[in-house]
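Continuing the series of single-chain predictions for the mutant panel. This is the parent chain; the variants come on the following pages.
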Amino acid sequence: MTTAAPTKTKYEAIIGLETHCQLNTNTKIFSSSSTEFGSPPNTNIDPICMGLPGVLPVLNEKVLEYAVKAGLALNCQIAPYSKFDRKQYFYPDLPKNYQISQYDLPIAEHGWLEIELVDAENNPIRKRIGITRLHMEEDAGKLVHGGSDRLSGSTYSLVDYNRAGVPLVEIVSEPDMRSGQEAAEYAQELRRILRYLGVSDGNMQEGSLRCDVNISVRPVGQKEFGTKVEIKNMNSFNAIQRAIEYEIERQIAAVESGERIVQETRLWEEGSQRTVSMRTKEGSSDYRYFPEPDLAPIEVSKEQLDKWYSELPELPAQKRHRYESELGLSAYDTRVLTDERSVAEYFEATVAAGASAKQAANWIMGDIAAYLNSNKLSIGEIALKPETLAELIQLIEGNTISGKIAKDILPELLAQGGSAKELVERKGLIQISDRSAIEAIVEQVIAANPKELEQYRNGKSKLLGFFVGQVLKQTGGRADPKLTNQLLAEKLNG
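Parent structure:
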């Protein structure tokens, strides 16, 4: 009698993200100091953000507006009454030894956003990720550790308080994600929404978007969560995905070997592509929260809420759905076109000017995107206006010029602008569509290449491309490609 091999346990990851987003205000959350990035250390500071005795914070009105708009865009319930709290901890980057944040009465709760992944067949896979809360808080300063490329080996630390008091919103997700890919897409979609709103630039390299990952694993089918571990120090969306994938494998290996998972904070090391232990995880009781005595509670009226809601733009997910249903674009096309609000608006303006949606998408995602990347430009910095791109597409579709001619003149239009039609006329590039004119050139080309003609008729059918090239060469690329192919096929096979 043989015994069946034991079934290998399958595990699933439970993932949630805590995301800190710097708001695009000119001044700090409670004072008039500048929020400009890159200023010399400790120059954008004042008595309020340094917590000197006798000073009182005053809430920046723009911070409240941006926080509420972000909450509305994330489908949250906006609290008519909320307050600030003191979160107390002792660390060199915190000049007051406490952070003004929100604890039990945040400005927004119970929301969601939709993430979209594309499968191998280019079909969209959509999933809602819950938003637990969104609250306002001030940033801490920045510590620069010297003497080693690792924190544990540093011999001294430098403190820059420029960032202390910079306004943030912290957005906490529900533990609804199950893979590194889902988490990375959630972070990207969150950034898209905030950038569409204009409330944050979401630049991870400058620290204006920072994500902490909470992750645990459990056997598939188990209801109870495993022990949660927090991961910090990820400075790109790829890093978020890789850190999660590493941590899932680490935790599964630990569970299967009988090792206890410790509730802790771990750092992602980009160089070694692994997570390393940093400290045991604090609980909310460790921070000794209590209501901020120097700031009045916040009340948002229905009239104010309605006004801010009316100012929201169409958001990325809404655009994706509309582009698919109304314009017939693929899931892939809609994702690329809606990644940046400026690109989406350029595309929509091109379509509004008379271009077909698919052709406009192809030109923007292809040749124009390549030009932007190679010249490190944004779409708003090019001379080619949406109306001119629409004109160019219409010239192709009307057989006035070929696609090749359009590609040839595109760099000039991108750099200098102007009318596509006028440029074509000035350069004498209007397509030859007269059958008899092309037929005469075809006959000349065939007569001039008897060797290639013989090879073609002996079975080398790929030489058709050679003859097409010769006709286009003689006409400066102006011969109608479709008609040229047709006439050549007739003559060569005749």
